[in-house]
């Protein structure tokens, strides 16, 4: 943001067009640059956290990261977000402090306050983007991501017993329908919601990158989805999440390989 202070010669007053030529000489523009700082409270196995990180990177917004344990939230996180969940984005500028919570609220705020759009250029494009975001954050989270992360990672991290093999098998069966749907979409469009990259791609990529970290995406059985994901993870915005390392969990060798 830039605030502009104008100091004008006393002759430059009123609406006399003949005085307009004095503007360049008699106005002194003093630009005071104020750079906003961004801090994101996140967890690396949280798809909503990953989607916000991807959106920030697509918007070329530098952001400091503070890792949280959503199952054991810190007092800082509780103070920032009554839901005690991630992601939470804190923006500080000119002594002001804004706190944003909820992945969609954060992503739409970033889209409205930075150049370019990740929602779509027309009402129909934005509606389709939001529909697909809802699909991945709702249906895929319930049927696949939540089960795999909960059973294979969170139980171990929280010390809550052994994984439920039945839930893991169900998730591994369910993911196939989602990969088939992604392939169906990319056969008809350049990206999931249309010709341009949108939050729909980032939402799907956030979920699949978490599942891929756990080694549970059958990429070779779904070449169209694999091709789309290869294009997505080769974008510079993906470098951060591909560099994530979770103590006690090693990703498969292909996880950060742009060519699988």
- The shape is globular
How many angstroms separate the termini?
41 Å
Strand order of the largest sheet: 4-3-5-6
Total count of domains = 2
Question: CATH architecture of the largest domain, please?
Answer: Up-down Bundle
**Mean pLDDT rating:** 89
- Taken in chain order, the helices and strands follow as EHEEHEHEEHHHHHH
Low-confidence stretches: 1-31
Strand content: 5-15%
Topology-level CATH name of the largest domain: Glutathione S-transferase Yfyf (Class Pi), Chain A, domain 2
Structural class: alpha+beta
Task: Report on the biggest sheet.
Answer: 4 strands, mixed
| CATH structural class of the largest domain | Mainly Alpha
What proportion of the residues is helical, as a percent range? 40-55%
Gyration radius, rounded: 23 Å
- Tally the beta strands: 6
**Helical segment tally?**
9
Structure description:
By secondary structure, the chain is an alpha+beta fold. The chain has two domains: 37-113, Glutaredoxin (3-Layer(aba) Sandwich); 123-242, Glutathione S-transferase Yfyf (Class Pi), Chain A, domain 2 (Up-down Bundle). It has nine helices and six strands. The protein has a four-stranded mixed beta sheet with strand order 4-3-5-6, with helices on one face. β3 (37-42), α2 (47-58) and β4 (64-67) form a beta-alpha-beta unit. α2 runs parallel beside α4 (103-113), α5 runs antiparallel to α6 and α6 crosses α8 (223-233). The protein is globular and about 50 Å long. Residues 1-31 have low confidence and may be disordered.
């Amino acid at each position: 943001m830039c605030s502009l202070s104008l100091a004008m010669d006393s002759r430059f007053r009123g609406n006399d067009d003949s005085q307009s030529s004095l503007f360049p000489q008699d106005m002194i523009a003093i630009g005071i640059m104020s750079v906003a700082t961004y801090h994101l409270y996140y967890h690396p196995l949280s798809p909503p956290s990953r989607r916000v990180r991807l959106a920030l990177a697509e918007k070329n917004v530098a952001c400091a990261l503070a890792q949280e344990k959503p199952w054991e939230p810190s007092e800082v996180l509780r103070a920032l977000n009554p839901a005690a969940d991630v992601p939470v984005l804190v923006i500080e500028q000119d002594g002001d402090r804004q706190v944003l919570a909820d992945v969609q609220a954060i992503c739409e705020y970033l889209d409205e306050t930075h150049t370019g759009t990740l929602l779509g250029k027309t009402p129909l494009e934005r509606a389709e983007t939001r529909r697909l975001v809802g699909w991945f954050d709702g249906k895929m989270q319930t049927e696949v991501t939540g089960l795999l992360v909960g059973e294979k990672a969170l139980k171990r991290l929280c010390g809550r017993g052994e994984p439920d093999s039945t839930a893991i098998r169900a998730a591994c069966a369910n993911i196939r329908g989602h990969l088939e749907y992604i392939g169906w979409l990319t056969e008809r469009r350049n990206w999931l919601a249309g010709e341009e990259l949108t939050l729909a791609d980032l939402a799907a990529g956030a979920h699949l990158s978490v599942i891929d970290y756990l080694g549970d995406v059958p990429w070779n059985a779904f070449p169209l989805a694999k091709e789309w994901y290869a294009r997505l993870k080769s974008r510079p915005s993906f470098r951060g999440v591909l560099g994530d390392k979770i103590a006690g969990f090693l990703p498969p060798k292909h996880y950060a390989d742009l060519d699988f």
